[in-house]
Specification:
The chain is built from five helices and five strands. It has 157 residues and is of the alpha/beta class. Strand 2 and strand 3 form a beta hairpin. The radius of gyration is 20 Å and the shape is globular. The chain starts with a helix and ends with a strand.
């Protein structure tokens, strides 16, 4: 490249200013949201959890899934600047074939969560749900999707 071209490229790059990665659109991880519900219940006055707590929670779930002898059937991850959006996407065509099957998985996740020390110590083992846990951890919403045709958002208020 000659000097004039090099200077032109440098001027253009300087004119761009600092480069940052663009935010991912909602439909990057799942199809457009077609339905929504609001979950509005307060079980305790627990303080809101910080980003690090939410990221660690998702990391522990993913680690447990990957250590299991069978392949995970869905993926759970946190997104957003504060990691306050929980996303659960099916990894096969069966597990979330319908919203009702996805709700059954949420019920199963509730059962697993109720056996944790957190739920036992907080005396929430018989009343709290997966949505309550997500809310206590500071998630603002949960999107569940079959990863192919539909997505459903639960807004946690």
């Amino acid at each position: 490249m000659n000097r004039a071209a090099s200077r032109l490229v440098l001027a253009v790059l300087i004119g761009l200013g600092p480069l940052t990665a663009p935010a991912q659109p909602d439909d990057y991880y799942y199809p457009p949201i077609g339905s929504e519900e609001v979950f509005d219940r307060d079980l305790t006055g627990a303080p809101a959890a910080e980003r690090a707590v939410r990221v660690n929670f998702i990391t522990q779930i993913t680690k447990a899934q990957l250590e299991a002898p069978e392949n995970p059937r869905f993926s759970i991850f946190a997104k957003g600047a504060d990691a306050d959006h929980m996303i659960i996407v099916a990894l096969d065509d069966e597990v979330f074939a319908t919203l009702y099957r996805a709700r059954a998985v949420m019920a199963q996740l509730t059962s697993n969560a109720r056996s944790t020390d957190f739920f036992q110590r907080a005396n929430l083992a018989t009343t709290a749900t997966w949505f309550d846990l997500a809310k206590l951890l500071g998630f603002r919403d949960i999107v569940i999707s079959d990863g192919r045709a539909w997505s459903h958002r639960i807004v946690l208020e």
